[in-house]
Amino acid sequence: MKPLPEIKVYPERPVLDGRPLERRVGLIILATDHTTEPDFRRMVASERIGVYVARIPYANPTTPENLRKMQPALTAGAALILPDEPLDAICYSCTSASVVIGDAEIEAAIQAAKPGVPVVTPPMAGVRGLRALGVSKISILTPYTVETSRPMAAYFAAHGFDIASVTCLGFDDDREMARIAPAALVDLAREATHASADALFVSCTALRGALAVTGMEQTIGRPVITSNQATAWNCLRLCGDETARPEFGRLMTLPLPRD
């Protein structure tokens, strides 16, 4: 074999950019999640904004008890995302667990590893989205069982919304929830939206609801907010991106309201 040439060290280091990408969004998702990463690649990631993902343990069925079990893993999950580097936002992508554990507890667990970073949860983003739309009476559609849907309705009621109706599909496995076709969600939106409701909230980060938002809005003639659409919108606005994206629903054309 011919001898290798001498390896030379270039005498000057290249000038380094401040960051590879200008803005950073952290994403904590379930080990079983099929949907959030593709949705955030589609709606958030760009040449300006990077999305950095950590997965934490989760085992079906989707019950309040199993959802609560994720809380101890949140700090470790957050710590895995660009250690010792700042983030512009970090999202815990589970709607039902956020309701069961509580926004404040999730924020505390994540900020234990990432102090001062704005924390986004899907129900929190949903509340902000509904307020941005100026609605007060809503219908809710979930893929969960009645047991898991009940805390969801209570969460939005506690935040001041009049709940016109709640419809659930009875699933207890998030991997099956991810297999519901977006076109089926359009039909379900029609059945789940009460005549008196100002808007529809479609819960669950496993659902491919972001792909169906415009179809659902056209079908019911009212705004629709889905879990991943709401968190994507919230994270974009925290990164200073105010670009209107009407292809992902009316919410994506609005600014983030002040809390």
TrEMBL record:
InterPro entries: Ectoine_EutA, Iso_Racemase_Enz_sf, MaiA/AMDase. Signal peptide: none annotated. Pfam families: Amdase. NCBIfam families: ectoine_eutA. This is Ectoine utilization protein EutA. The lineage of its organism: Bacteria, Pseudomonadati, Pseudomonadota, Alphaproteobacteria, Hyphomicrobiales.
